[in-house]
Design goal:
By secondary structure, the chain is α/β, with parallel strands linked by helices. It is 26% helix and 31% strand. The longest helix is centred in the N-terminal third of the chain and has 14 residues.
């Protein structure tokens, strides 16, 4: 399966938990992920939900799938001001954190949640390959970055998932079971 997401907004380098949650909560991004989940949830079981605090995170991909991502990041800062550009690896870390459920999650226990949030994957370990290019976008009126995120997924046998992380499956899912 392949799909493309569009995010428009600031992606700070070394984003705080609040900034990462703001990216996750982006109305347009959530609408795209909600629509994707409506399609993909018909094809796999419900092993794609985690609860953190009072928020239920629902992933488009089940935990046994991996994906590759091609990201085109259009930054609001012109190249003539290259010294003002945030560090790209930290910017991408912030984006990856926003596309996945936060660490320290637990299996839904049936307790009510106050809000829900859709994400691409439950764990960033599911992002097995990343290709990134960066440029400046020329909308002089916008302070927002623009990210095109093309995700290609693959259902992965459990043994392959273990080999990808170099850990046992139980360790990978320790916050899920």
């Amino acid at each position: 399966m392949r799909f493309t997401l569009l995010y428009k907004g600031r992606i700070p380098a070394s984003g705080s938990a609040e900034q990462i949650n703001a990216i996750r909560a982006n109305e347009y991004l959530q609408a795209q992920l909600t629509a994707l989940h409506a399609v993909t949830s018909k094809h796999f079981s419900s092993d794609n939900k985690l609860i953190v605090g009072s928020t239920q995170f629902t992933a488009v991909l089940p935990i046994t799938w991996v994906c590759s991502a091609e990201i085109v990041l259009l930054r609001a800062t012109p190249h003539s001001q290259i010294s003002g550009l945030p560090d790209i690896d930290n910017t991408l870390k912030t984006l990856f954190d926003a596309l996945c459920a936060p660490a320290g999650a637990s299996l839904p226990s049936g307790s009510p949640t106050e809000k829900s949030c859709f994400v691409v994957a439950l764990e960033d370990k599911q992002l097995s390959s990343i290709t990134v290019s960066s440029d400046h976008h020329w909308n002089a009126k916008s302070e927002d970055d623009i990210a095109f995120i093309r995700v290609t997924t693959q259902e992965t046998p459990i043994d392959d998932a273990v080999a990808l992380g170099g850990q046992t499956f139980k360790t990978i899912r320790k916050h899920v079971f």
